[in-house]
Every structure is written in structure tokens, then in C-alpha cells.
Amino acid sequence: MSAGPQAPAPAGSGPASSKPLGIVAGGGLLPLSVAAGATAAGRQVVIFGIDGEVDPGYRGFPHHSVRWGEIGRLFDLIRREGVEEIVIAGSVSRPDFSSIRLDFGAIVNLPRILAMMIGGDDTVLQRVVRFFEDRGLRVVGAQDVAPDLVASVGTLGRHAPQRRHDGDIACAFEAVDLLGRLDIGQAAVAVGGRVVGVEGVEGTDMLIARIAELRRIGRLRWKDRDGVLVKAAKVQQDMRVDMPTIGPATVAAAAAAGLAGIAVEAGRVLVLDRRATIAAADETGIYLVGRQRGAAA
Q1: Do 247 and 32 meet the contact criterion of CB atoms below 8 Å apart?
Q2: pLDDT at 79 (0 to 100)
Q3: Cα(279)–Cα(72) distance, rounded to whole angstroms?
Q4: What pLDDT, on a 0 to 100 scale, did the predictor assign at position 293?
Q5: Within the chain, which residues score under 70 in pLDDT?
Q6: DSSP H helical segments within the chain, as ranges?
Q7: What angle, rounded to 10 degrees, do the helices at 248-256 and 274-284 form?
Q8: What values do phi and psi take at 74, rounded to 5?
Q9: pLDDT for 273-289, tens place per residue?
Q10: Distance between CA atoms of residues 131 and 136, nearest Å
Q11: In what order do the strands lie in the sheet with 21-25?
Q12: For residues 86 and 101, is the Cβ–Cβ distance under 8 A?
């Protein structure tokens, strides 16, 4: 195992567990944010990074690199490290099994693995969770080991939504609710009391980019900053996996698209690199607010 530095437990915090926390890491900042949060809380972590997906920063923590198809090796490493709890975090592309080499553990489980890949994101992720649980592991959510990442109710930063923004926020929340029930997406954009964009399989970044392009070609028009990006969890979502996230890049993209702000579902959305995210909102002049689903402004 390659080892990076582990921060000491905060005074008086007490260990959350004597066993290390395993993080099966895909792409993006979430696995690193979870590792940093758990480490700061006094928990030992081991990252199992998926080659071609995981951010290079994972090497700053104790880690192993695992290729697609190395299912047997992954579970051997997990047992060797004494891991009993895992977090599954980060983005992944669905693998092309025709182009990867399977180890014995993958071959033995191939029918189940192939079956797991059929269906929408929620269905796939629920099957992945059961796959790990059937092997004696406890799957926990990022919010359970790094609760400081969870968005809270209220305004984050200097800028607050104006009364005229409340209708857009409510409208976009309603759209995300419907999207989630159909297992389609977790975000929507509303301007002037109507939904102008919803998230599909392309993800939030591409949704915002599409809004910016529609403004550029004149299909969407508004002066100054207006409209809101809302991000919320699906109603039926297993909060242990695929919890929605925003970060500094989300704020920068929303500002570049001319949006007035971002609203997220409090308690069910993670804010990555909170300090940098709030700083980006302050600097660009957009609001960032946490709202409970269905709550009045």
C-alpha cells in the first residue's frame, strides 16, 4: 500500500471506529473530500481508486489502485486492510466489458455484474450496494463520515435571493422532484417562473453549459443576472450513494451562464470545498442558499 499523511484525531473527539474506512473512489472531488473529512474526524481511511476515473489527489492518502475488472483483487485488498465499512463515492463511466481484462473474482461474478449494469442510475447503484453488502461490508454515506459537507438551511455567503427569485426556486424544485421520480436527473434551471432546462444523463455541468449556449444564440433572453439552478436528491434516492454535489466549478459555471443563484436541498446535497464554493459565490455576485424540499421561503 502507498501511504500518505494521516491527520491526528481532534482532541476529545474519540475514534469513530477502530477499523479503517474504505473509500471506493471514482472521479471528481467527492472521494477526496470524504477522505479529508473522515481523517479530520480521527478516522483512518484507505482509498481504493478506480484507474482512469479517480482524481490523482487520492495518492495523498493511504491507497490502492484498482483496474476495471479486478473485482477479486479489490475484495482481497479490502480484507487485507481490515476494512468493514466503505463509502462508494465519485463519478464513473459505465465500463465496456469487451475491452477490459477480468480477474477470477470478476469472472465468477460476471452474470451478476452484467445484470447490475442494466437500468437507471438508482437501480444500478442499489445493486452495487447489495453486491458489497452480500460480502459482509457495511456501506455508509459520505454524510455519515463527513457531515460538514452537507448543505444546511439558509444563505451561504454574502448574497441572498431576492423575493422575486422565490418563484423560480419553487418552480425548479418541482421540476427536480418530477425528474427524480423518473430517475432522470437531479437539477433544473428556472427563469421568470418557468423551467428552461433539466438535467439528463449528461449531468449538471452540461445542463448549465446548455443554458449558456441558449442565451448565446438568443433562445433565452434576460437582462443582468436572473434565474436559478436547483439541485436536489431524488425522492427515492439511497442517500449512501450518488448524493448530489455542488462545488466551486458549479458556481463558476452558473455565474458564467448569467444565473442569479443556486439553491440546493438542505440536508440532502453535499457542498464540496465549502470555503472555496462560498468564496466563488461571493466573488461572482450570485446567491447560494439551502432550502428544505417543499418549504416556504
Answers
A1: no
A2: 95
A3: 43
A4: 82
A5: 1-17, 94-123, 295-297
A6: 30-40, 71-80, 104-108, 110-116, 121-133, 142-145, 166-181, 204-216, 248-256, 274-284
A7: 20
A8: -60, -50
A9: 999 999 999 999 999 99
A10: 9
A11: 63-66, 45-50, 21-25, 85-89, 138-139
A12: no
To which residue does cell 453535499 refer? 270
- Residues found in the chain: 297
Question: How crowded is residue 69: how many other Cβ atoms within 10 Å of its Cβ?
Answer: 21
Handedness of CA 102, 103, 104, 108 (dihedral sign): negative
The CA-CA-CA angle for residues 76, 64, 92, to 5°, reads 95
Q: In what order do the strands lie in the sheet with 261-265?
A: 154-155, 287-291, 261-265, 228-231, 187-191, 194-198
Residue whose C-alpha is closest to residue 28's, from 81, 90, 103: 90
Cβ neighbors of 85 (< 8 A, separation 6 or more) are 17, 19, 21, 22, 137, 138, 139, 140
Q: Mind listing the domains of the chain with CATH numbers? A: 21-145 (3.40.50.20), 150-291 (3.40.140.80)
Q: C-alpha grid cell for residue 204?
A: 449538471
**Which 3 state secondary structure label does DSSP give 22?**
strand
The C-alpha cell of 182 is what? 423518473
pLDDT for position 108: 59
pLDDT of residue 23: 96
Report the DSSP pairing between strands 194-198 and 187-191: antiparallel
**What is the pairing mode between strands 45-50 and 85-89?**
unpaired
Question: What's phi and psi for 170, nearest 5 deg?
Answer: -65, -40
